[in-house]
Write a structure and sequence with these properties.
six-stranded mixed sheet, 213 residues, 7 helices, single chain, 16% strand, Rossmann fold
């Protein structure tokens, strides 16, 4: 069995939240980065040790991973006399690329849509922005990335700091559900989603949970 621990990155800064940022490399909110230190500490105590760590190329996942490890995760490993894990970067676990719509204010999006927006996502699961990708296509790239990691790290724990859309896509791959169904899942910032890859297939342990003290 390979156990996956997926965490959505921390909240991004206010100006970025006003637009469709997709795969833009936006900064984290400096205020919540400080105020949510107790959450980072809880995650540091909750996540398995040892584990293989994975982030995406975007700085918001890298910085979130660093904050969790700084909040006690690495110290616990050092106390046990174990080597610190070196995080790897997996581009295929990145957020949905919104193409020409990236940077567009949310209020301006409806006039560009070809299909009605999803109730819980800016666009429908099969809508492809010009120069970008649909959520269905996100599932098609996230799924094989998870399968590769499951083989490479068979029998291990894998901590992945990723994005809301990619984590929904991961659950969709595990459950074999369509993009529009996956978009009904809530995945909050710093929430934890757990999945397991066994010989018989995927099992979803929990989605969008917050660590408990």
């Amino acid at each position: 069995m390979t156990a996956f621990w997926l965490i959505r990155h921390a909240l991004v800064e206010e100006n970025a939240r006003a637009v469709l940022y997709g795969t833009m490399d936006v900064e984290l909110c400096p205020h919540t980065l400080q105020s949510q230190v107790p959450t980072y500490q809880l995650l540091a105590r909750t996540l398995p040790r040892p584990a293989h760590w994975v982030t995406t190329p975007l700085s918001r996942t890298i910085r979130t991973a660093e904050a969790i490890r700084r909040a006690g995760y690495d110290a616990a490993i050092e106390d046990a006399g174990e080597p610190l894990p070196v995080a790897t970067i997996e581009p295929d676990l990145s957020e949905q690329h919104l193409g020409d719509w990236q940077g567009l204010p949310h209020a301006d999006l409806p006039q560009h849509l070809q299909s009605p927006a999803h109730p819980f996502w800016p666009l429908a699961g099969d809508e492809r922005p010009p120069g970008g990708e649909s959520m269905a296509e996100v599932i098609a790239r996230v799924g094989p990335a998870l399968e590769r990691l499951a083989v490479t790290h068979d029998g291990e724990d894998v901590v992945i700091v990723s994005h809301g859309g990619a984590i929904r896509a991961a659950v969709a791959h595990a459950l074999g559900i369509a993009a529009d169904n996956a978009l009904h899942l809530s995945v909050q910032n710093l929430s934890l989603t757990r999945m397991e890859r066994l010989a018989g297939g995927w099992r979803v342990v929990c989605v969008n949970t917050m660590p408990l003290g």
